[in-house]
């Protein structure tokens, strides 16, 4: 539950907390007032999904306070991510049962097709990766292998947006490695 409340805007988080107050209070009661008799735990899945060419980040028609176009996110999750989620759930359930630790009760309407239905269902970790893809060919990507934009010589981007693909893990360490590598390159560049 606690891991499921991370990310997003404060207003959205507050609304989520208020709408799930009964579950939060129940968790607190079981955790702190009856720690010897906890009979259930939530399994929280957090995974990065593979790239999907149908997903897009574009500029919309709506304008912000400065008159600039607002960003529009069209997030499409394909069958590969859904299949990975279900395979992982089944493996964890089978292993917990085999080890005698407990049983897993699924929280989807249809484990073969659906996504979790509690806590607002499927949510993202706000990692829009690949929006300024790294590629040696300017027709295939926005930045080169050194994170320098193909179209602008003195503009560099070091973040998950340059990833040509994503994995099923948190991107933070790769972002840090890219930033450190870029910092070393810029520091040694002639001025």
Attribute tags:
191 residues
Architecture blueprint of SSEs:
Elements: H1 10-19, H2 21-33, E1 56-63, E2 69-74, H3 79-98, H4 172-188
Antiparallel strand pairs: 1-2
Instruction: Please mark out the parts with pLDDT under 50 across 5 or more consecutive residues, or reply none.
Output: 1-7
Shape: extended
Percent in helix: 25-40%
Largest sheet: 2 strands, antiparallel
Order of strands across the main sheet: 1-2
Strand content: 5-15%
Task: List the total number of helices.
Answer: 4
Rounded to an integer in angstroms, the radius of gyration calculated over CA atoms is 21 Å
Distance between the termini: 51 Å
If you average the pLDDT, what whole number results? 78
* Helix and strand sequence: HHEEHH
| Number of E-type strands | 2
Oligomer: single chain
Q: What structural class should be given to the helix and strand makeup?
A: mainly alpha
Summarize this entry quickly.
The protein is mostly helical and 191 residues long.
Give a structural overview.
The protein has a two-stranded antiparallel ribbon. A hairpin with a 5-residue loop joins β1 and β2 (69-74). The protein has helices at residues 10-19, 21-33, 79-98, 172-188, and strands at 56-63, 69-74. Residues 1-7 have low confidence and may be disordered. The longest helix is centred in the middle third of the chain and has 20 residues, at 79-98. It has 191 residues and is mainly alpha-helical.
């Amino acid at each position: 539950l606690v891991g499921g409340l991370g990310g997003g805007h404060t207003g959205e988080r507050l609304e989520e907390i208020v709408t799930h107050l009964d579950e939060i209070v129940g968790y607190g009661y079981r955790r702190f007032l009856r720690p010897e008799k906890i009979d259930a735990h939530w399994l929280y899945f957090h995974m990065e999904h593979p790239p999907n060419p149908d997903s897009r980040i574009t500029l919309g028609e709506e304008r912000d306070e400065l008159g600039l176009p607002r960003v529009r996110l069209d997030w499409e999750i394909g069958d590969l991510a859904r299949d990975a989620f279900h395979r992982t759930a089944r493996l964890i359930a089978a292993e917990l049962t085999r080890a005698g630790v407990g049983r897993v009760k699924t929280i989807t309407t249809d484990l073969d097709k659906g996504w979790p239905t509690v806590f607002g269902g499927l949510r993202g970790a706000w990692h829009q990766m690949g929006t300024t893809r790294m590629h040696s060919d300017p027709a295939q990507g926005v930045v080169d292998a050194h994170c320098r934009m193909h179209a602008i010589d003195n503009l560099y981007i070091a973040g998950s947006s340059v990833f040509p693909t994503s994995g099923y893990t948190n991107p933070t360490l790769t972002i840090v490695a890219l930033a450190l590598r870029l910092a070393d390159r810029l520091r040694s560049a002639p001025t």
